[in-house]
Model the fold of this input.
Amino acid sequence: MKIATSVLAAALLSATAAWAGDPGVSDTEIKIGDVNIMTGPAAFVGRGVSLGSKIAAAEINAAGGINDRKIKILTEDDGYIPSRSFQALTKLLDEDGIFALNGTSGTANVLAMMPLITENNLPTVVTTAPSALIYKPVRPSVFTFGASYSDAFYAQLKYIHDHSEPNNPVYGVIRQDDDFGQEVEAGYERAVKEFGVKDGIRLRFKKGTSNFAAEMAQMKQAGVNVLANGGIFAGAANILSEARKLDMNLQSADVWSEGIPASAKLAAPAGYDYTVGDYVALSGPAVEKFLAMAKAFTTADELAGVSRYTFVTYVGLKSLAHAMRECGKELTRACTIEKLRQTKNLDTGGLSAPVSYDNPQQLAGTEVAVYQLHAKDVTFHELVGFKKY
Amino acid sequence: MRTGHYKESVGGLIALSDSKAVWAWTVVLLAALVAAPFLVGAYSLTLMVSALIAVIGAVGLNLLTGTTGLISLGQAGFLAVGAYTNAILLTDYHMPVWVGLPAAGIAGALVSIVVGIPSLRLKGLYLAITTLAFAFIINHIILYAEHVTHGPNGVFVTGAKLFGFGLQRGPALYYLALTLAVATIFAALNLLRTRVGRAWIAIRDHDIAARVMGIDLVRYKLLAFVVSSFIVAVAGALLSLQIRFVNIDVFALILSIEALAIIILGGLGSVAGAVLGAVFLSYLPEAIRLVLSAVIDPASPLYANYVYEIRGIANGLVIVLFLRFKPDGLIGFWRDARKYWSNWPLAY
Amino acid sequence: MDFLALLVSTGLVSGAAYGLIAMGFALIYKSTGVVNFAQGELVMLTAYVSFSLANALGLSFIPLLIVTIPIAMAIGLALERLIIRPMLGEPVFSIVMATVGLAVILRGIVVLIWGSEPLNFPAGLPTKVISIVGVPFYPAQLCLLGALALVTFCAWLFLRFTRLGMAMRAVAANETAALLMGVSVDRIHAAAWMLSAAIAAIAGMLFAINFKLAPDMWFQGLKSFPAVILGGLDSVIGASLAGLIIGVIENLAQGYLGEGMREIAGFVVIIVVLMVRPYGLFGSVDIERV
Done:
């Protein structure tokens, strides 16, 4: 009897000792954090992002969870302000005790949280802001999923160059005056140098601009007919609307933010069949399958808010869950990070190229697919499947 | 509570307070603040550091707006100047923190001279608009002076150390912020008791009469601007130490408006009011979050979809209600309580 | 098309938007001495309200305008009664800060009701490009210019020839004397807010049709400040003309200087104006200088 109790006691002790270390993990649940833009003018982006985590968690939990543990998503608002992201993550770490982070907002926001992430060795999957600033230098616990804006634009311009270039091509780029805009211009520069075409004009504008009259007048003056449109949402729509007014014959390569229904509705009236380069699918069987699956876990309102922002966090959480599952019952941050590093060719059901973090920068999903908008019925069609550029 | 004052010497007249009770309570408060890191969790400590930074900024702005009557909407710009100076010196030039902080203050003071000189002859509202314009221009300059400020990429603050203690999170940063806050409050209180302070109050109350009495308006207004900007820039530098990444997104215009809201809510013209206002507005989002989660069930879709907007509206509502019903500000509550206690059972 | 002509024409269009918003500012300042920091948010709110009306009732442009304006006036009256009127007697600074608080509330309400996505608002205006003297315009842009001209003319008539307008000018000149002369200052304040809200509705609708309908429209209020200052804080006509001037200056700065100059061109103008001629081009010359 004594031996039995001592063996039992030893077994119990060793079992509890296994995950006494890392916060956010208990017998029954794993807490995953999400710091997002829930308020402010960009809130529709943040809600789409949060939806991705929510759908992925619901799907995984419905299938039994991860080794009998259910995922719980904890969302905090940062309103796109970096200092608030820092505060939100502090709260998630100290008060709520999250295990990992999936779901972030902008580049500056992730960078503001970086000191906390590195200090706590917090497994983090960055899917909405795949900027080079995040993985150069690479942080041990940070995994980035997504192609750079530079690759996305290069892919689109390459398609235009190969298939529909006008007779006297003059290329032009208009982009925001920040790091995101720099990447857009980098992709543009690469394309223009490689194709040897005329670099008509490069313009910058301040974030939030809605009046592009002067810029488009300059574009018209330079004779641009292939445009790298670095505007987002209403800005991109205004750029195209201004171009239509000036009767410019343009092929426009746009940011992936123009692939969401709201942006397409805004921009379609200008009548340009612009292209979009993205590292997740915008249309096709994979999207249909996702929507059918998501119906069970969302309300009708939420389902209407599903966009490419939902897909990226969905893929992010799936890859995180995959690694956590590999760790078995003894789930620790160190083990999760190890397993994430070993992730190779994880299938995402066609929503993106297979996910492989097994490279020095812990970067996956760099393959870009090119889609084109049919302005008449506001739908997207695939031009080129996922490819590395 | 005191009902009257009986002073026998000049020293007694100009002392900060001759009441033993006041000093005793101050010591108790300071002791509690010093012991705080051992009593509260890390998240609460972060909130307290944010509140202390807000206190420093509010005291600085109060010297300008509350005491001298010069309304400034450019505080976000001066915060940015202080934060960027500190960040650049620490990261790019590897200077220690005790060089970075004063340098940030001096940078703020220099910029304020540039901003102040064109606008000093204007009154009230026009000055507010000029400072607003300068805030925009400073933002623009930071964005386009890439070789110095890294433009849109922002600056990381790494390796900040003071007396061998790393200033990343935790008690070290808290004590630094606490020391600076206490120093600022004492400096402000003392400044207000000197001729400079009295000149500022005179300028606020009636500047033409002040001029007639021999107070050089340009000199004292500029001094108010410079001192206030120095303090606000130091607050900005502390902010950069706390969040360890500066970028122009951090210093949106809304900060200037929040700063004004702080000193008005606290009570215009009073240092204690500025402190109260800063602490109140720093904790307001948390308080609203607690109230809302008690009233509305967190699992309901109403909460999940709209909680953030409701919090935002609640913030604005608090400001409007305070202005409507308690224009004296928070310090007005204290003054009312004191008057009531002193005069009871009489009304006045 | 001539580059310069393009810049000037589009500058006039964006300037017209500034001018309309600035007129709202000036009207309230003129009558009550308060700078209404919630003007941008009022523009945004009335634009969203007209969007909902357009969707619910399927109206085209002119009928929509006719329906929106009274509703906007009601909103303006409600805000004045709820927020400003109870604070009568407080220092102006406090009332201005109350408008700041009001601005925060209105922003939250807009996102609460309409969500944060940018929306399309054609309002039944044709989208075919019209060419005038070789310069292309959208009909919506011509409407904006026309609206500015019309509102300016009406404002001039109103202030010059109607009793209410003259009463407003009296209150602006000397409130106590106006009271003594039997002017109901209380009614004037309410009227100022109502008319300002009506102008804001026109500004909001046309801005939303031309540029965007999104919850960050309130920023246009801030960007219209240079127009208010240049025109003179208490000159309604001046604000409208100054808006056009600022719009053109901004565009020219961006077109010929680049580097984001459009954003700060307006504010540089403010600083120059305040140093040289603080009461603006048309304002009354009583700013105190010490």
In short: DSSP finds 14 helices and 13 strands in chain A. The interface with chain B takes residues 38-39, 43, 77, 79-83, 86-87, 90-91, 93-95, 106, 108, 111-112, 114-116, 119, 133, 177-179, 181-182, 206, 299 of chain A (CB under 8 Å).
